[in-house]
Design goal:
Blueprint (H helix, E strand, L loop, with lengths): L17 E4 L1 H5 L9 H14 L3 E5 L5 H13 L4 E6 L3 H10 L6 E8 L2 H8 L3 H16 L5 E6 L6 H14 L3 E6 L6 H14 L7 E6 L6 H10 L4 E4 L13 H10 L15 H12 L20 H9 L27 H10 L6 H17 L5 H14 L4 E9 L6 E9 L2 E9 L2 H12 L5 E9 L8 E9 L2 E9 L2 H20 L10
Parallel strand pairs: 1-2, 1-8, 2-3, 3-4, 4-5, 5-6, 6-7, 7-8
Antiparallel strand pairs: 9-10, 10-11, 12-13, 13-14
Helix pairs in contact: 2-3, 2-11, 3-4, 6-7, 8-9, 11-15, 14-15, 16-17
This protein binds 3-methyl-2-oxobutanoic acid and zinc ion.
């Protein structure tokens, strides 16, 4: 059974797998998963501390927000290489080069489609033109940085001769990493392994570049395919925390890392990831993207180490290895522990946060402490999970322009239900009383009256952070406007307050996404 790092023996550099995390780019592209700049910086810092080798921070040409995220992550991150994505157009590459200007270790990641389907219908280009663009794009990127990754979009549905020619030209032009993505999640393991073996064998100077896998999960095969690509000679894996990503998502970082650790007997490779930080990273990404982690998700799901069946519990009591192939501690799951009560002071609270992996600035710490005291007054037992939900909520909402100040609700059988809501918008206090078809409807109507908007509520979901009727509620709200979707979360022991927090957080995110500078206010 895996506990910490099993490999005491020296390990060859040729067996090291580079972890390229694209949570902030491919992950953030999934509908509704958009993150604010502050959230991206928090995630990047944690990924860096966890040992990720390359952090893809965004697609600088896509928006001002993406440009800023790449530029700021590049300045903030101390250890990892920071990558910015670019299509093969000159303006894309120039923008990526500009965003990465201050990075200690910058990488431009440029891509173009190489499959017949994509070249004809998406690019409307002849293969000969694509070949020219491969060379031109890589050469242009090399004028900015020495570390250039070239990707063959829809690589797994490309003709092998053409793909090899593209890879050859990319290496000749100076690409140092060659990525062959399974863009549409179509390949299967043996096929993907053989693809890497073939390309590496046929392309001259293939040993001058690191080969990379990038798998999507449309058939649920992303992790298996990534591991097969490694067997085929790839030494970089592109993946995301919680498998966040376009459509069915990308290969999950935590699954790749733990598969390599737990099955080191058949997969003799290693990464630089500190696996004990996986749970913490998963929770942060889930909080900032507002994408819940499914209960039975491998490695980081809340049931991943839970044993319900009597026969399993019996086995576990006799020897944990009977039903566990890795320890919960090895991925950072601590025993659910009672932390502190209402008498705990600032010092104990700070120590506890440190143990959970948080270091907050003075203001954020003070706000979190006040909320903890409030929670401890209202809730019998405060668990680590409660603190994680509370602090993540604080981090996510700290920089918001619309803030919840007060809420009181009249609910019950009589109807109509009503909500009196006070919010703070850029320092202005606003209050409104609204009725609705139920208390949640009344709260949302009050918000709509104070901050008018056209966005449509697409999802409203509640789940309990821990057990018991006094558990904190975590509410997710998704809003859609003009084809843009945002999801946000709010946590509080009162489900109605959590609902208001979540809706307001979604509006804040929507404002950032719209690039609008002032929320329009109707009532005041
Ligand atoms: O899935 C894909 O092909 C991509 C590329 C841009 C690397 O995300
Ligand atoms: Zn992708």
């Amino acid at each position: 059974m895996i506990d910490s790092n099993p490999g005491a023996a020296p390990r060859a550099e040729s067996d090291r797998i580079l972890i390229f995390d694209t949570t902030l780019r491919d992950g953030e592209q999934s509908p509704g998963a958009s993150m604010t700049l502050e959230e991206k910086l928090k995630v990047a810092e944690l990924l860096d501390a966890m040992g990720v080798d390359i952090i893809e921070a965004g697609f600088p040409i896509a928006s001002e927000g993406d440009f800023e995220a790449v530029a700021q992550v590049a300045q903030r991150v101390k250890r990892a290489t920071v990558a910015g994505l670019a299509r093969s157009a000159a303006k894309d590459i120039d923008r990526a080069g500009e965003a990465l200007r201050h990075a200690a270790q910058p990488r431009i990641h440029t891509f173009i489609s190489t499959s017949p389907l994509h070249m004809k219908f998406k690019l409307n280009k002849e293969p000969a033109e694509v070949l020219e663009m491969v060379t031109a794009s890589v050469k242009r990127a090399r004028n900015y940085v020495a570390d250039v990754e070239w990707s063959a979009e829809d690589g797994t549905r490309s003709e092998i001769d053409f793909l090899c020619r593209c890879v050859e030209l990319a290496i000749k032009a100076g690409a140092t990493t060659i990525n062959i993505p399974d863009t549409v999640g179509y390949t299967i393991a043996e096929e993907y392994q053989a693809l890497f073996e073939t390309v590496r064998a046929r392309v001259p100077d293939s040993d001058k570049a690191v080969f990379s896998v990038h798998c999507h999960d449309d058939l649920g095969l992303a992790v298996a395919n990534s591991l097969a690509g490694i067997k085929g000679g790839a030494r970089q894996v592109e993946c995301t925390m919680n498998g966040l990503g376009e459509r069915a998502g990308n290969a999950a970082l935590e699954e790749i890392v733990m598969a390599l650790k737990v099955r080191a007997d058949r997969l003799p490779y290693h990464t630089s990831i500190d696996a004990s930080m996986l749970t913490r990273a998963s929770k942060l990404v889930s909080a900032v993207s507002s994408f819940p982690v499914q209960y039975n998700k491998a490695i980081v799901g809340r049931n991943a180490f839970a044993h319900e069946a009597g026969i399993h519990q019996d086995g576990m009591l006799k020897h944990a290895g009977t039903y566990e192939i890795m320890t919960p501690e090895s991925v950072g799951v601590g025993k659910t522990s009672l932390v502190m009560g209402k008498h705990s002071g600032r010092h104990a609270f700070k120590e506890k946060l440190k143990e959970l992996g948080y270091e907050l600035g003075d203001n954020a710490f003070e706000d979190a402490f006040l909320r903890f005291k409030d929670l401890a007054d209202r809730k019998k037992t405060v668990y680590d999970e409660d603190l994680v939900a509370l602090v993540d909520d604080e981090i996510v909402h700290a920089h918001e322009r619309i803030k919840l100040v007060a809420l009181s609700v009249i609910a019950g059988t009589g109807g109509p239900q009503s909500a009196a809501l006070t919010i703070d918008v850029d320092g202005r206090r606003l209050t409104y009383q609204a009725t609705g078809n139920g208390p949640i409807d009344a709260i949302f109507n009050a918000i709509r009256a104070l901050v008018p908007h056209e966005a449509v509520l697409e999802l409203y979901q509640v789940h309990a952070v821990t057990e018991g009727t006094d558990a904190q509620a975590e509410v997710s709200v998704r809003l859609a406007e003009d084809g843009k979707t945002v999801t946000a979360r709010g946590a509080d022991p009162d489900t109605l307050v959590a609902s208001a927090r979540a809706y307001i957080a979604a509006l804040n995110k929507l404002m950032v996404k719209r690039g609008r500078h002032r929320p329009e206010i109707l009532a005041g």
